[in-house]
Amino acid sequence: MDITDVIVIGAGPAGLNAALYASRKELSVKIISNDIGGQMLLTSEIENYLGFESISGFDLADKMEAHVRKYPVEFITAAVMNLEKNEDGNFVLHLDDGNTVVGKVCIITAGKHSRTLDIPGEAKFTGRGVSYCATCDAPFYRNKTVAIVGGGDSAVQAAVELGHLCPKVYLVVRSRIKAAEIMVKRMEELPNVEALIGYVPEEVKGDKKVNALVVKRKSDGEERELAVDGVFVEAGGIPNNSYLPEDVKTNSMGEIITNKDGETNIPGLYAAGDVTDCKNKQIIIAVGEGAAAALAAHDYLLRSGK
Predict the structure, then answer these.
(1) What is the per-residue pLDDT across 50-61, written as a single tens digit (0 to 9) for each?
(2) CATH superfamily of 3-113+237-304
């Protein structure tokens, strides 16, 4: 049986850097993911990654991938269906293509997927006015009215991007805006962006396509029906960890609990990036966590004599 030193799940910034660092330690590495770049691919412009004053998420992902491919890292296009630790202390990963891979250590960097609103009309109009990627779909809404649901960095960035394309943009925020101050300032400078603070989405309405979003004010229950052509859901993410063994410790949001070296409560199992309980979900932090996890994995292999 072919046993790889390090198996990385996920090919976003954390996973790519983990693979790079592990390979540079002369370890055999396999990286498993259905895409390369992760949520970076959904970001139109990145201005806070050291060394690049401004770069698109796609271009940054492309540069990272090219760097990693200079090393003998094996890329596997697949999804992990199940992860278990066998009697030899190795990690066995069952993939959706029917194949199985085995590694001495495993680093989970699978990130998150978009959180849905779970309101009437959302599923019905997904792809017909409801979108989970402003960067992908914003150009289709030029000169139209849209609503964005969320109050974090991605929501405010979407408001700025759409604010330059649309005559009217509503930002529906449940509690308060939790985005970088510079992005909030840019949004507030756009007269066509209206932030509805303390409102929650209730229903997406439409005929063949979306034509309205019903929102409710939390303080008194007052409802408003916003006439919109599109609804962008930017309400955070859910960790991609459905394959985890039950004994892996996670927090109430399903994020994997790790220490500063990316160690989980399972020896030989590491995690980095947005899939973990790290407070700040930033590309540069994910990159650093990926490096830390790979270095810790290398130390573990040396100590265990594997």
Answers:
(1) 999 999 999 999
(2) FAD/NAD(P)-binding domain (3.50.50.60)
Rounded to an integer, the average pLDDT of 95-113 is: 96
Given a cut of 90, whether residue 25 has pLDDT beyond it is yes
- Asked if 31 contacts 73 with a C-beta cutoff of 8 angstroms, the reply is yes
φ, ψ of residue 3 to 5 degrees: the values are -115, 120
Sign of CA dihedral 200, 273, 281, 138: negative
Q: How far apart are CA 240 and CA 254, in angstroms?
A: 9
pLDDT digits (tens, 9 = 90+) for 123-155: 999 989 999 988 778 999 999 999 999 999 999
- Residue 260: half-sphere exposure toward Cβ, Cα within 13 Å: 0
Using alpha carbons only, how large is the chain's radius of gyration in Å?
Answer: 21
Tell me: the pLDDT tens digits for 262-300? 999 999 999 999 999 998 889 999 999 999 999 999 999
pTM here is 0.83
Calpha distance 182→23 (Å, rounded): 37
Amino acid at 223: E
**Three-state helix/strand/coil letters over 80-137:** EEEEEECCCCCEEEEECCCCEEEEEEEEECCCEEECCCCCCCCCCCECCCEECCHHHH
Residues catalogued as catalytic: 133, 136-137
Same-fold call for 3-113+237-304 versus 116-233: yes
